[in-house]
Structures are given as structure tokens and as C-alpha cells.
């Protein structure tokens, strides 16, 4: 498993937590940051998956 997949998953989890806390306390900035972190995590996870696929084909 590529390290990008691991880091992407962690960013996604961190983003979900930030988003939830932002909603709970009514902090729209924190909620937006959480959504951005989740999006970054998904992208990084996808890049890691692509790297894994390419590595397995070689």
C-alpha cells in the first residue's frame, strides 16, 4: 500500500472530524476547512491507488 493512500485516508478522517466539530459549534470556517481536508484526502488516496496499480502491473 502506497504511503499516499495512508496519508490520504488520515486527511479524510481529520477532515470529517473538523467538519463535524465545526457544525456542532456553529463555526463555518472550521466546517469549510474540514470539507477541504476531506477533498484533499480523497485526491491523495486516489493518487496512491493509481501508484499501487502501476506498481502491480510492472
Automatic annotation (TrEMBL):
UniProt xrefs under InterPro entries: CsbD (IPR008462), UPF0337_stress_rsp (IPR050423), YjbJ_sf (IPR036629)
UniProt region (Disordered), positions on chain: 32-58
Stretches assigned to the CsbD-like domain: 4-54
Pfam families for this protein: CsbD
Coiled-coil regions listed in the entry: none
Bias-annotated ranges (Basic and acidic residues): 32-41
SUPFAM superfamilies: Hypothetical protein YjbJ
Top-rank lineage group of the source organism: Bacteria
Family: Belongs to the UPF0337 (CsbD) family.
Protein name: CsbD family protein
Origin species: Microvirga puerhi
Amino acid at each position: 500500500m502506497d504511503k499516499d493512500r495512508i496519508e490520504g485516508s488520515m486527511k479524510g478522517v481529520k477532515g470529517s472530524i473538523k467538519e463535524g466539530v465545526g457544525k456542532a459549534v456553529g463555526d463555518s470556517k472550521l466546517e469549510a476547512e474540514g470539507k477541504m481536508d476531506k477533498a484533499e484526502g480523497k485526491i491523495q488516496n486516489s493518487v496512491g491507488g493509481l501508484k499501487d496499480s502501476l506498481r502491480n502491473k510492472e
